[in-house]
Structure to design on (165 residues):
């Protein structure tokens, strides 16, 4: 992180020699700084993951996530993007081992797409959102952060509430 006295308002971030540089105004408070760094890292990751995974790559990714976080117990047969899912980020058919991801996830940070994929993989094992379901997601370190990101996306799209006078 580099603080710059010349920088009065703008924050920017880029990668340099494998490191991430975040430029922030010198006057920013520690709390603001923390918020901005997280936001800029999300943006960087989103930019980098713009490259959209194809069906084969999605299945490979899903198998990798299953192996890493679910002991390989979830065995997806197909994973594909769909454009008709506007209220859900993902869905699955456990009896067929098929997973569908909303195209609205495209361009979001990789950890968010991974979370939705892992969420659907967990549904192949546990259909309901009970405690056993959430226990399956416990080993994925970014569950809370990904859920927060998706809630933020939903909130940002709701029409702004009018103030009453
Ligand atoms: Zn679910």
């Amino acid at each position: 992180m580099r603080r710059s006295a010349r920088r009065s308002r703008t924050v920017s971030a880029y990668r340099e020699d494998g490191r991430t540089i975040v430029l922030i105004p010198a006057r920013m408070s520690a709390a603001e700084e923390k918020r901005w760094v997280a936001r800029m890292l999300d943006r960087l990751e989103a930019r980098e993951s713009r490259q959209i995974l194809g069906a084969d790559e999605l299945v490979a990714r899903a198998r990798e996530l299953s192996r890493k976080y679910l002991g390989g117990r979830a065995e997806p047969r197909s994973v594909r993007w769909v454009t008709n899912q506007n209220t859900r980020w993902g869905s699955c058919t456990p009896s067929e081992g098929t997973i569908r991801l909303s195209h609205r996830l495209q361009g979001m940070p990789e950890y968010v797409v991974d979370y939705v994929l892992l969420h659907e993989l967990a549904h192949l094992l546990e259909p309901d959102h009970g405690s056993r379901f959430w226990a399956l997601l416990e080993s994925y370190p970014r569950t809370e952060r990904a859920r927060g990101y998706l809630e933020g996306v939903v909130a940002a799209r709701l029409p702004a509430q009018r103030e009453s006078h």
Notes: The chain has two domains: 2-48, 55-157. The pocket of zinc ion is lined by residues 119, 123, 129 (CB under 6 Å).
